[in-house]
Amino acid sequence: MASCKPKGPAKGGAAAAPEACGGVADIDPKLEWHDGANSYIIRLNLPGFKKEDFKVQVDSGGRLTVRGERPAGYVRFHKAFQLPQTANLEGVAGRFDGTVLSLTVPKQPVSGTDMVMARLIEAKEECAARAEATTWAEALGGKGQMVAAAVAGFALGAFLAHRLLSATNS
């Protein structure tokens, strides 16, 4: 990225410190993230910037980086974040309307098996979380002792019936 000095880059290609630039302002543009059915949509509010003032990169690890510098007023920004594993890194597309940069990141197609596995893992994690937070007595609304007595009575009755029928048939 160019230095804050309009004449050219600083030594080593690094941006000069804000003190040396006479007041470079680092901004943090507003970011919106939408998770759609087939794609992720990322919107950055960049008023006063031109298309030539910023750069978008996606590396092979799925890290998306947007950085820019506006020479007029010496304003710059840098946003970087990790895309989800379901993102199709090859299909990232962008559009800039003069104030908002919209990036569309398509999702990888999901097979039926992958979807079922994801749902099973999600259900298993949810059940595990519930099991940690709830005892059987709580799940039964405080009537756990009554249910336990009923189960024990049923088991005893089944055992006795089996013994009686076994004794009479032999």
What would your notes on this structure say?
There is one protein chain. By secondary structure, the protein is of the alpha+beta class. The protein has a domain at 25-106: Immunoglobulin-like. Helix content is 33%, strand content 27%. It contains four helices and eight strands. It has a four-stranded mixed β-sheet with strand order 1-6-5-4, with no helix packed on it. A four-stranded antiparallel β-sheet has the order 2-3-8-7, with no helix packed on it. A hairpin with a 3-residue loop joins strand 7 (93-96) and strand 8 (100-106). It starts with 17 loop residues before the first helix and ends with a helix.
Short structural description:
The chain has four helices and eight strands, in the order H-E-E-E-E-E-E-E-E-H-H-H. It is an alpha+beta fold and 170 residues long.
Order of helices and strands: HEEEEEEEEHHH
Strand percentage lies at: 25-35%
Biggest beta sheet attributes: 4 strands, mixed
Which blocks of ≥5 consecutive residues have pLDDT under 50? 1-20
State the CATH class of the domain at 25-106: Mainly Beta
Number of helices: 4
- How would the global form be characterised? elongated
Average of the residue pLDDT scores: 78
Strand order of the largest sheet: 1-6-5-4
Salient structural properties:
alpha+beta; Immunoglobulin-like; four-stranded antiparallel sheet; 4 helices; 8 strands; elongated; disordered N terminus
